[in-house]
UniProtKB/TrEMBL annotation, chains A, B:
Residues 37-56 bind DNA. This is TetR/AcrR family transcriptional regulator. It holds the Pfam family TetR_C_11. Residues 14-74 form the HTH tetR-type domain. Keywords: DNA-binding, Transcription, Transcription regulation.
Amino acid sequence: MAKKPAPNSTRRSERSRRAIYDAALALVGEVGYAKTTIEGIAARAGVGKQTIYRWWPSKADVLLEAFLDLSEQASEPAVKEGQEPFEFPDTGDLGADLKFVLRATVDELLDPRFEVPSRALAAEGVVNEQLGAVFVTKLLEPSLQLYVQRLRSAQDKGEVRHEIDPRIALELFVSPLAQRWLQRTGPISYEYVDTLVDYALHGLAPR
Amino acid sequence: MAKKPAPNSTRRSERSRRAIYDAALALVGEVGYAKTTIEGIAARAGVGKQTIYRWWPSKADVLLEAFLDLSEQASEPAVKEGQEPFEFPDTGDLGADLKFVLRATVDELLDPRFEVPSRALAAEGVVNEQLGAVFVTKLLEPSLQLYVQRLRSAQDKGEVRHEIDPRIALELFVSPLAQRWLQRTGPISYEYVDTLVDYALHGLAPR
């Protein structure tokens, strides 16, 4: 009986795909977004550029998927049996759940594999409105929507006031961390994100 | 009696200085930080490049001062008789004072004269650690310290809890606005910054 060709071919494709992701992330970190080309990614990955064009229409698309893949890898150790990746914990203690997720984000932001290409793309997104919009829509906003869901669940249980807009509320702890990382306006740590969550939940004014 | 040469010379210098600032801001907005050169600024300003080198050691220094000057111009209409520029209002109502300053920041962020060069420099600061540090230290942090002083004054009056760290607390309303502007993660408006202040002061949890 003849072997089916599919599994080998799939493994080969998977290897190429991974090599292309790695090459794309490495290149954008080294030379920046503007100087990263499909040709450069292909040469570094050891594939023909037609291989890349077969799967992705542009370098922005390659990089977007490379980032999605990197984020999935980063979240793998935290994924438990039967749990969806990126599932936001809901233990019934909002503060603890927010701190858990924000501490994991601190780990990711301080990981050089993630940091170098992320900075290059974030910088490009600031001046290149089209690229910025793609990354916000496909990469950042979906993860922010997990905070929205968790805050809504907290509203249902009376842990968060009903008149609060969750999409704005999440920015009280997510944006300070993002700005310290992006603009290096201060150190980031577990203690720092814990403090942000405490301030946001309980407010600056005396109770 | 011979005229003193100083006033004319000072006016000439002031005109050159202004032309150089305008040229530097226009260029960095058009071609980005990396491609902005002292030669390019000099040509656009109609001065010799030695004129620029006489006053500033590098393009980063020219741009830094051009920005300081732009911020001062922007704040001029709000400056009242006998009041220092950039003075933070202290009417005794912390929420109202924070909203007043943040609304003025919204106006500035939406002003194209400010927005285009700011984006170019912010993007460069994300990847260029040295430049980022200069702009944070000399431009951003001094304005954040005005929030720190205002929050300390509110702590003295019992409007803000004593255990709060003002340098972290200010990020609850400043950073969300910065991130929406920098990464275009959402619209910015007076209503938006008012909401941030209300959430930060009173907290997300029921009182």
